[in-house]
Please model this.
Amino acid sequence: MVVTSKLKCFSFFVILLQFGFIALNLHAAVLPEDRSDILYHRFDGGGVVIDGPSILVRKSIQDTVSISANYYVDNVTSASIDVVTTASEYIEQRIESSVSVEYLRDKTILSVNYTQSDENDYSARSAGFNFTQDFFGDLTTISAGYSQGWDVVSKRGEEDFAEDVNRKQFRFGLTQILTKNSLIGISWETVTDEGFLNNPYRSVRYLDPTTAVGYSYQSELYPETRTSDAFAIRGMYYLPYRAAIKAEARFFSDTWGITSKNAELSYTHPIGEHWIVDAKIRSYSQTKANFYRDLFDRIDAQNFLARDKEMSTFGNDSAGLAVSYERELNWGVIDRFSVNLAVDYIQFDFEDFRDLSIEGTTVGEEPFYAFDAIVTRFFFSVWY
Amino acid sequence: MKLLQKFVLISFVALLAFAGQVDAKKTAAPDFTLKSRDGENVRLSDLRGQVVLLNFWASWCGPCRQEMPILDAIHNKYKSLGFSVLGVNLDAKSEKAINYLKDTPVTFPVLYDPKGDVSGQYGVQAMPSTVIIDKDGNVRYLHEGYKSGYEDDYRKQIKTLLRE
Amino acid sequence: MPALRSLAKLVVITLFFLLAGCSSIRPWVKPYERQNLADPITFFGRDPAADNFLHHVRQAREAARGAEGSSGGGCGCN
Model:
């Protein structure tokens, strides 16, 4: 039985992408700057290489409306641990496009957005709106948003296979300026997914003394609903010699029993008039889903079965460095441009997901899996 | 005297705080003296007899920068009729403003208020803020912020005050 | 963690009341004192396309999702 496995591309990413799209760009009572970015992105790790372009264009009209559009492609070449142990390397492509419109009136910004993502066996659509309000002399900013997503999960090789996933997401944030040089923010986000939440290709393994390797596979089976909550705190401090230090911590839990926490520290340092260097470190850890096991005792051991390494107990640590060169231009409509390179190194260590690609091991005692990855972003930006 | 002055100023601030777009209410514009970019001291009361558009701006403020060329056009259009734009720059480090003006020159006088004393006197609540003062030295109109189209209001109000 | 959820709600509600009730407290950072906060180096997401991609990379490989963005700060103009 040939079973192919793949990196799941949840429409959730799609929804969050648009929230990120909006939320990251909103600064009290002014529309985001007009700009265009052309980005080459690349993920290389764990036997998977995903790269492609991302193009962003943003333009405002009369200082009251700002329109953004993004076109993004993932070219996936995967020989990941899931693929290597159960199937053969595959290549595929995912294309995502999104558009958002923001409207500014006095101290309020209202935005709506729409995103669609398509690959040969997964399509996702989502729409949402966001609301930001400044008050108290613009020292306090409140934001709230809601998004809804509709996915269709299909399966290569099975024409009739089509399952739905519906997602609902609600988000709230508060940012408070503390001093001329510092601010603090808190945010909370809750997501509910309903429908076919597992991967149609992925399997779990169970002890099977009748086979040569000692285990057999069966399809994974997840609950039909999942609700999660995330709560984050972040702070920024401006250093007098012109630099900024930022810290953030997030806590997460969901109805599948997964809890996680992560913390990140970053430092931004301009050099001279044109260069900016960013350095950051981040640490993430999570506990497993309550229906996750690396090796089940027998077939149909539980109502729900998962062996997705993303549902296991693991941690990752990363360090990143970014360099940016920016210059004023005054070339027709273009005011300035920048060239940027950002590289992150991430090390993943799993505590209850075992590496089955290693030969000569006893069932259930294979070494735990670990891999590292390099994430690259190389891009040009212009402002006009 | 200082206490009384403070009281007057605070009342003025309180008034402006709720002013929004103050129309035709006559309150005396607080007098001040600031250094201009040619090094000379400029005093607001020296401009009595002229209509003055006082604009509080800073180089780091996007809408302020957008407004600058428009204010320059307004200054050039009406200056022969007894009008002047007076820019008050609030950059804590004035060199930033000087560098900005090198790239985007304007012809109206620009004064430096790096400590924010004058903006405090005028109770500046938004960036940018535009105060239009009549020939008798009274504040007649206040605009908080800048959005495309505000300049049409400026022109109308300047013409009204010039006719007085 | 339901406790964390309640805590989060409590923090938010408290802040709301604090802010709503403090009409006697004036904004302590004046609009013309915002130059540092308006500096793009203080922003959490300076380059949206690149930052969104990094968030996507993390969400694809971690079970956690949500609460990644931030709004506020900036020049507070208009």
Summary: The mean pLDDT of chain A is 91. The longest strand of chain A covers residues 158-179.
